[in-house]
Write a structure and sequence with these properties.
The protein is an alpha/beta fold. The chain has one domain. Strands 2-3-4-5-6-7-8-9 form an 8-stranded parallel β-barrel, surrounded by 5 helices. It has a two-stranded antiparallel sheet with strand order 10-11. Helix 4 links the parallel strand 6 and strand 7. Helix 8 packs across helix 9. The protein is globular, with a radius of gyration of 19 Å.
């Protein structure tokens, strides 16, 4: 049985848009984000339409101020229960994890997944294994094999890692998406990042001047709308009353080699976009995708 995040209501399955707080790190000087912290920062995020936050370090907000969830890394089976317990005791609504390093033998992968599922059940904390480079789910083929062994597994779908890392458009996007159906049907959380076939993090139109020629010719924006909508259809096909799908923009800075840097008029390298403005755009886009997924499910 799949255990999504559930709010205990009798409502139809719903979407909630959170913000991964790393999205606010190292923003451009001209960012729309006013640099607020603490409760003032949470109030501003609320006013800007975010339903919660994914805490990436430090102390979480009070649940009464802003709902929150967590993220972590589980490298070995022995780590799964202590990490799950730590986040459950902290009050996280759910947890997304990077699992392993992607170099494990098959039996090691399965023991790690099993330990995460058992820790989730014991702590009653929904845990979503992220589709991410340098983890056991870095390869879509292996991830599909995991779903065959553990049909109840749920994922945090960060599809930038497949779209760029496995170049999904090479050989045909439709063919790759059909193969990924078992993954799409097990998405319980989503990280928002749009990639191109050659760059992990790409902008969408936001009235910010950027070098158009640097963006290539692939319509990666349209592809991600298709991918996200398919994942949401998978959620809606299996979710029950009260189940919640969180979508959290996670646009990272150039410090982590994600945001691209270009010289400004003075020759100083700066990020090509305001990542907070981009997160606000993602918020609008994902609501449109969810409406389409409801219509098509």
């Amino acid at each position: 049985m799949r255990h999504y995040l559930n709010d205990g209501s009798a409502d139809a399955p719903k979407l909630r848009v959170y913000l991964n707080l790393d999205n606010l790190s190292d923003l451009r000087a001209d960012s729309r984000w006013p640099g607020l912290e603490g409760n003032e920062g949470m109030a501003r995020l609320r006013a800007d339409g975010f339903d919660g936050v994914q805490v990436t370090g430090g102390e979480p907000p009070s649940a009464g101020v802003m709902p929150f969830c967590g993220l972590d890394r589980i490298n070995t089976p022995a780590e799964a229960l202590p990490i799950a317990t730590q986040h459950a005791d902290r009050g996280d609504q759910c947890l997304t994890v990077h699992a392993g390093w992607g170099i494990e033998e098959e039996d090691e992968v399965y023991r790690l997944v099993e330990s995460i599922l058992n820790a989730s059940a014991k702590t009653r904390l929904p845990i979503f294994i992220e589709t991410h480079r340098a983890t056991i789910t870095q390869d879509m083929w292996r991830t599909v094999q995991i779903t065959k062994r553990f049909p109840e597994v749920l994922f945090n779908g960060d599809f930038s890692h497949y779209y760029c890392g496995q170049e999904m458009v090479y050989g045909g996007l439709d063919m790759k998406m059909k193969f990924m159906s078992p993954i799409f049907d097990r998405v319980g959380f989503m990280h928002g990042r749009i990639a191109s076939p050659g760059h992990m993090q790409m902008p969408v139109d936001d009235e910010t001047s950027r070098p158009v020629a640097a963006s290539g010719v692939t319509d990666y924006f349209a592809d991600f709308r298709t991918i996200w909508t398919r994942a949401m259809r998978g959620f809606l096909a299996h979710a029950k009353a009260g189940d919640v799908l969180i979508f959290a923009p996670e646009l990272l800075s150039g410090t982590y080699d994600y945001a691209r840097l270009f010289p400004n008029a003075r020759g100083k390298l700066v990020e090509e976009t305001d990542r907070y403005q981009q997160a606000l755009l993602y918020q609008r886009i994902i609501l449109e995708c969810f409406a389409e997924a409801r219509h098509r499910k």
